[in-house]
Amino acid sequence: MNRQTAFLVKVGELLEAHPTDQQPAAFFLPARKILVGRANLMGFIINKENTGAGYDEFVLDDGSGKIAVRNFDASLSMGNLTIGDVVNVVGRVRDYNNVRYVIPEVVRKVDKAMLDLRELELSRQRLPEEAEPKAVPKPDVQPKPLDEASPKQSVYEVIRELDTGAGVEIQDVKQRCNVNDIDKVINNLIEDGEIFKVSSSRVKVL
Asked: How many angstroms from the chain centroid is the CA of residue 164?
């Protein structure tokens, strides 16, 4: 099964999204006319606890709303996270007993300055009021997995090769890759949750 795209969204958007009958689970965001099954979120940890119910949980607040992040995977450690940390969360959106939450696949501490960059990225994705809304994606359409011969795979491999720990300059990636429309390819990798921006000019593999 192909993995769903991890959309950059605000918590408030997720809380207002409408459930659908799609499998895997996906939620319709009316303001942006998209279906979201996996989300890429960023915000502050405002509460954290071991529930004793088979999962650890923290509450993420990005200023637009608060949502629980519930970790059922013992291999994904969250012991180093504390209240007040700014984190980037990539995970699956779920509803249970009328409570919306996220099951994390990636949880990473980031610098507080990244919040401003995230706001900029989100502002570029929002539809202007006068623009014609995009069509809702068809339920049977899923993003293609990375292929060894695909531009996305080529760019991903170059980023992984050049990254020594602090990320890679986007300009260096462009010089190494013979790929058409590389900015679009990099943005697609970010949306898929494969890489993330550590600054306006640097990216890093998740």
From this structure: 23
Q: Give residue 18's identity as a one-letter amino acid code.
A: H
Identify the pLDDT of residue 38.
Answer: 93
Taking the C-alpha atoms of residue 172 and residue 161, their distance in angstroms, rounded to an integer, is 11
Q: Parallel, antiparallel, or unpaired: how do β-strands 38-50 and 86-96 relate?
A: antiparallel
Q: Which amino acid is at 200?
A: S
In this predicted structure, what is the pLDDT of residue 166?
A: 76
Residue range 54-71, pLDDT digits in tens:
888 999 999 999 999 999
DSSP state of 1: -
The token pair at 79 is: 């012991």
Phi, psi of 125 (to 5 degrees): -90, -20
What residues contact 76, with CB distance under 8 A and at least 6 apart? 104, 105, 107
What the chain holds in terms of domains, given with CATH numbers, is 6-125 (2.40.50.140), 151-205 (1.10.10)
